[in-house]
Design goal:
The complex is a heterodimer of chains A (about 110) and B (about 120). Chain A is an all-beta fold and about 110 residues long. Helices cover about 0% and strands about 55% of the residues of chain A. Chain A contains no helices and eleven strands. In chain A, a hairpin with a 2-residue loop joins strand 5 and strand 6. Chain A is globular and about 35 Å long. Chain B is mainly beta. In chain B, the strands form three sheets. In chain B, strands 2, 5, 6, 10, 11 and 12 form a six-stranded mixed β-sheet that branches. In chain B, strands 3-9-8-7 form a four-stranded antiparallel β-sheet, with no helix packed on it. In chain B, strands 1-4 form a two-stranded antiparallel sheet. Chain B is globular. In chain B, about 35% of the residues are buried. The chains are: A mainly beta (about 110), B mainly beta (about 120). At the A-B interface, strand 4, strand 5, strand 9 and strand 10 of A face strand 6 and strand 11 of B.
Amino acid sequence: KAGVTQTPRYLIKTRGQQVTLSCSPISGHRSVSWYQQTPGQGLQFLFEYFSETQRNKGNFPGRFSGRQFSNSRSEMNVSTLELGDSALYLCASSLEGRSGNTIYFGEGSWLTVV
Amino acid sequence: AQTVTQSQPEMSVQEAETVTLSCTYDTSESDYYLFWYKQPPSRQMILVIRQEAYKQQNATENRFSVNFQKAAKSFSLKISDSQLGDAAMYFCAYALPFGNEKLTFGTGTRLTIIP
């Protein structure tokens, strides 16, 4: 079956703009989570959604937001982009979002802010 | 807050040899999960192995095994018979049982395989 799909894979934005990234989980998976990966901060948890509800949130400013649709697809949005938002954004899905479940990651969306 | 530490930024090993990657963590919880993830140049995170803290037996997956020392809060990954395809960044990660997929990652170890 198809894996976790993230779009777009690469994008370049200007400071002050906003961006929306999309994630389609593996079919049947109801939990979707997002991570930011940068050389300086490493991998950091952004948030997790299950059945259209945000269940967990990392320590990021309110400019970072997300949502999940009824088909489990998820989007994350970053408003008023800053240079420091340049990163690889990884989406992950699992059946129910419990740590006993296997978590599958997508290949990520590379965001460059100029 | 839980923290995960990987003290080896880079490691290298001769093909077919064995290498061990180190990971320590800090937590006050007694029940949790530990993971090793591999991130090849494609950047897709791939689960290598998972350990449940309440299980004393060390997890193994083919050529990959762990040495889980709960009292010492240590979780090392041993790769036997190293192959060129094992070259990647390896991340150690921690999660609570009902942590709703919140993984806390270490800083990673870049593993190079020497032919």
